[in-house]
Amino acid sequence: MCQARQRVYQTVNSQMVQAYWHIGRLIVEDEQQGQQRAAYGKQQLQQLSEHLTREFGKGFDARNLRNMRAFYLTFPNWNAVRTELSWTHYRVLLRLENTHARDWYMQETLEQNWSARALERQIGVLYYERLLASQDRAAVEQEAQAKTTELRVRPEDYLRDPYVLDFLNLPSQTFLESELEQGLIDNLQQFLLELGKGFAFVARQQRISTDDQDFYIDLVFYNFKLKCFLLIDLKLGKLTHQDVGQMDSYVRIYDRHKKGDDDNPTIGLILCSQKSETIAKYSVLADNQQLFAAKYLPYLPTEDELRLELERERQWVQQRLLKKGDDYDA
């Protein structure tokens, strides 16, 4: 019964998206003679709204008609429209002026099965921009153009920086690591969304043992795309050498005692409230392909604050890539 109901919903949604696209086309081509900015004022739009409402009922107010017109102008080729997405998804996507960002969000929504609300949040926290800032964009684009091989899968392509944890509703200053950890567990679904694609929760405070000592890892995830474990250590305050050394040990122990033969090397992520450029530059973080540090934000920052954060991260990534290039030339 549930499957039948879902199929009916998908059919109705597909028909609605198609109908709204055609109405947008009629407004542009028939009423505006194909012009994007024709003399088609509010009065005409209101008249059309009243006519369609009399004929077909609700859903044809002037605001929605403007969205339909924008829908057609944004997707003039019907073959580019994905009917798996709802009209609510498209109304969110229409707000994006950046074509590349819109196409990327559209594809991610399809692959990750994001709800319209999840899509709106990801756009709000600049997921696309943060992802670009954490990657070697030129290398990714160059590799994407290669005809013989698919994209090389790299851990940094699946991790973000910063992570926006506004859904925890933590106080901006005074909270404990245990409260942060509990908040992430209580909001696991939203944290998985913020964490990125392909992650599944494994354990909290997982014990790993050596011959003479036990260690406890704050959070453990598995990424089925990277085919490896992700260890997360939560830290308040500024990143230290001790934090990096501890995570390096965790990863080595986990690879020895927990990782399966068919798993890729384990990734370690230190999630801290303050990053240190010095530690990032002069520690094993600079050379180890499996160790990362990222900043978390307990509140949703302004767009300017995020831009500054992304610019700092972009400079760090460029320096890291330049160093790798120098090491390779040497």
Provide keyphrases for this structure:
single chain; elongated; 6 strands; 330 residues; six-stranded mixed sheet; alpha/beta
Describe this structure in words.
Helices cover 52% and strands 15% of the residues. The chain has helices at residues 2-31, 42-56, 62-74, 87-93, 99-112, 116-124, 127-133, 137-144, 177-186, 188-195, 241-257, 277-281, 303-329; strands at 163-164, 199-209, 214-223, 228-238, 267-274, 291-297. It is elongated and about 80 Å long. It starts with a helix and ends with a helix. Residues 143-151 have low confidence and may be disordered.
Summarize the structure.
This protein is α/β, with parallel strands linked by helices and 330 residues long. It contains 13 helices and six strands.
Strand content: 5-15%
Stretches where pLDDT is under 50 for at least 5 consecutive residues are 143-151
Order of helices and strands: HHHHHHHHEHHEEEHEHEH
Tally of extended strands? 6
> Which descriptor suits the 3D outline?
elongated
Q: Mean of the pLDDT scores?
A: 77
Backbone CA Rg: 24 Å
Backbone structural class? alpha/beta
> Largest sheet at a glance?
6 strands, mixed
Largest beta sheet: what is the strand line-up? 1-6-5-4-3-2
Ends: how far apart?
Answer: 65 Å
Percent of residues in helices: 40-55%
Number of continuous helical runs: 13
